[in-house]
Design brief:
By secondary structure, this protein is an alpha/beta fold. It has 2 domains: about 5-115 and about 290-305, ATPase, nucleotide binding domain (Nucleotidyltransferase, domain 5, 2-Layer Sandwich), CATH 3.30.420; about 125-285, ATPase, nucleotide binding domain (Nucleotidyltransferase, domain 5, 2-Layer Sandwich). The protein has 10 helices and 12 strands. The strands form 3 sheets. Strands 3-2-1-4-7 form a 5-stranded mixed beta sheet. It has a 5-stranded mixed beta sheet with strand order 10-9-8-11-12, with helices on both faces. The N and C termini lie close together (about 5 Å). Bound molecules: zinc ion. Zinc ion binds next to loops.
């Protein structure tokens, strides 16, 4: 039997990533470009990437999946709101994609696609339920329950980054206050350090990480504060869903135990001990490729391709 492939696109943040994935989750082709802002330019980039993938494919391409940052409505089949790409909001993307893509197309939220990628081909393989938290400039998340991606009634599930962990916390760009994302993402580590030291020359969480490793008390405290709120968030997830695994991905994973150690300790204090004991909190495995691998696997599920 000829092996077949599925194409995955991850339209999130500042980069547009794409690749060709085989049935075992291996990326056989991949590329990335800086994301344009205008809709016509985004479509032109997608068309070029699609034809390039197809041309280089070692076998037939059966389906094409897209993970997009924003609220994708399962019922209206369009993006209702995209914080990074205002031109995508309300745009009927599928008819536009169909003008050049002639295989089944599936679209989902980028964080949900990443969770599906880890579930099918990453650190979540074999698990029946898991939650992926991707912690970087924001916090994205996706939920797998009973072996299936839980998208919610309308497609908006898994916004764990916007659960309140500090009722008196800073305003969040979602309109809320003290969200997990405002209290525990990478920019907050930097803001904590700046507030504690008055040093505005430190602008990257990696710098704070280096300082913390060297024993800088303010840098250690900056991480400890974020870990505290991350732990509260993890505790809520454990009590609510009783998941088999929670996977942590994103840039801050490189901080390792500095962040995750105290966060897990806090989660233990904040969740039921039996549920906590049954949940493994681990690092995600696919890194920046999780979204496009997941989008391809998600599209394959729809297309029902086997080869
Ligand atoms: Zn929020």
């Amino acid at each position: 039997m000829t092996a077949s492939y599925d194409a995955g696109f991850d339209i999130g943040g500042t980069r547009l990533k794409y690749g060709l994935v085989d049935r075992d989750g291996r990326l056989v082709q991949k590329g990335k470009v800086r994301s344009p802002e205008a809709m016509a330019d985004i479509l032109a980039v997608l068309e070029q990437a699609w034809f390039s993938l197809r041309k280089k494919a070692p076998g037939p391409v059966r389906s094409c999946g897209f993970g997009i940052a924003g609220f994708y409505s399962l019922k209206e089949r369009k993006i209702l709101q995209s914080p990074n790409y205002p031109s995508l909001s309300g745009y009927p993307l599928i008819p536009a994609l169909r003008t050049f893509i002639d295989v089944p197309i599936r679209i989902g939220n980028d964080a949900n696609m990443a969770a599906y990628g880890e579930f099918k081909h990453g650190a979540g393989r074999g698990a029946r339920s898991l939650v992926l938290l991707t912690i970087g400039t924001g916090i994205g998340s996706g939920i797998i329950l009973g072996g299936k991606l839980w998208e919610g009634e309308g497609g908006y599930a898994g916004e764990i980054g916007h659960i309140t962990v500090n009722p008196e916390g800073e305003p969040c760009n979602c309109g809320g206050r003290g969200c997990l994302e405002t209290e525990a993402s990478a920019p907050r580590i930097v803001r904590n350090y700046q507030a504690l030291t008055g040093r505005t020359d430190v602008t990257d969480s990696r710098e704070v990480f280096v300082l913390a490793k060297a024993g800088d008390a303010a840098a250690l405290e900056s991480f400890r504060k974020c870990a505290y709120y991350l732990g509260i968030g993890l505790g809520i997830v454990i009590n609510l869903l009783n998941p088999e695994k929670i996977l942590i991905g994103g840039g801050v994973v490189s901080a390792g135990r500095l962040l995750l150690g105290p966060a897990v300790d806090e989660a233990r204090r904040r969740s039921h001990r039996i549920s906590f004991a049954g949940c493994r909190i681990e690092k995600a495995a696919l890194g920046n490729d999780a979204g496009l691998v997941g989008a391809a696997a998600w599209a394959r599920l729809k297309a029902g391709s086997r080869g």
